From TrEMBL:
Family, per entry: Belongs to the sigma-70 factor family. ECF subfamily.
NCBIfam families, alphabetized: sigma70-ECF
GO MF annotation list: DNA binding; sigma factor activity
Biological process (GO), any one: DNA-templated transcription initiation
Entry protein name: RNA polymerase sigma-70 factor, ECF subfamily
Tagged with keyword Ribosomal protein: no
Organism, as annotated: Flexibacter flexilis DSM 6793
Gene3D superfamilies membership: 1.10.1740.10, Winged helix-like DNA-binding domain superfamily/Winged helix DNA-binding domain (1.10.10.10)
InterPro entries: RNA_pol_sigma-70-like, RNA_pol_sigma-70_dom, RNA_pol_sigma70_r2, RNA_pol_sigma70_r4_t2, RNA_pol_sigma_r2, RNA_pol_sigma_r3/r4-like, WH-like_DNA-bd_sf
UniProt cross-references to Pfam families, sorted A to Z: Sigma70_r2, Sigma70_r4_2
Organism lineage string: Bacteria, Pseudomonadati, Bacteroidota, Cytophagia, Cytophagales
Boundaries of every RNA polymerase sigma-70 region domain copy: 15-74
Keywords, ordered alphabetically: Sigma factor, Transcription, Transcription regulation
Keyword Transcription among record annotations: yes
Length: 167
C-alpha cells in the first residue's frame, strides 16, 4: 500500500472512529483531541501496519491504547505525594491514641441490646459473630440451617433498631 493509499484509507476510516472516541471520553472536545492523536500516531507508524490486515481494527486499537495512556497520565498528575520529613508520622499508629471510654460505652450498649433480644435469636447470632458457619450453628443447636439464617437476620434487625444512636 502506498503512502497516498494509506492516507486515503485512514481519512475514510476516521469518520467511523469519532463515535468510539465520544464513547470513551464522553466529551466532544476530548473526543476530537483523541481522534487527532490517533491519526497522528497512525501516520507516524505507517510502516508498522501490515497490508491485508484490518485497518479499522488497527486504528481502534491505537485509539483505545491512547485513551488508556492519557487516562493513566491524568490519574498520576492528580496524585499528591508528600515529601516532607515528617511524612512517616502520618500513618503511624505509634503516635496515636484511641478513646477507650467510647469503646467501653459502645460495648455496654451492645451487651444491653443483646440481653433484650430473645435467646432463640441471640444465641445463633453470637455463634455466627464468633465465627461459626451456618451449618455448624445448625448442628450445634439442632435446628435447620434455614432457621439459623432467619434467626440471625432477625437478631440483626433488632440490633439495628436498638442501636440507632450508632448509625
Amino acid at each position: 500500500m502506498t503512502a497516498l493509499e494509506f492516507n486515503y484509507s485512514i481519512a475514510q476510516t476516521s469518520k467511523t472512529l469519532k463515535p468510539f472516541a465520544m464513547r470513551l471520553t464522553r466529551n466532544a472536545d476530548d473526543a476530537n483531541d483523541l481522534l487527532q492523536d490517533t491519526m497522528v500516531k497512525a501516520l507516524n507508524n505507517r510502516e508498522k501496519f501490515t497490508d491485508g490486515t484490518n485497518l479499522k481494527a488497527w486504528l481502534y486499537t491505537i485509539m483505545k491504547n491512547t485513551f488508556i495512556t492519557n487516562y493513566q497520565r491524568l490519574v498520576r498528575q492528580k496524585t499528591f505525594v508528600d515529601t516532607s520529613e515528617d511524612a512517616y508520622l502520618i500513618n503511624s499508629l505509634a503516635y496515636s491514641s484511641t478513646n477507650q471510654a467510647y469503646n467501653s460505652l459502645m460495648m455496654a450498649d451492645i451487651n444491653k441490646a443483646m440481653s433484650i433480644i430473645e435467646e432463640a435469636h441471640s444465641k445463633p447470632f453470637m455463634l455466627y459473630y464468633k465465627g461459626f458457619k451456618y451449618h455448624e450453628i445448625a448442628e450445634k443447636l439442632n435446628i435447620p440451617i434455614g432457621t439459623v439464617k432467619n434467626r440471625i437476620h432477625l437478631a440483626r434487625k433488632q440490633l439495628q433498631k436498638l442501636l440507632t444512636m450508632y448509625r
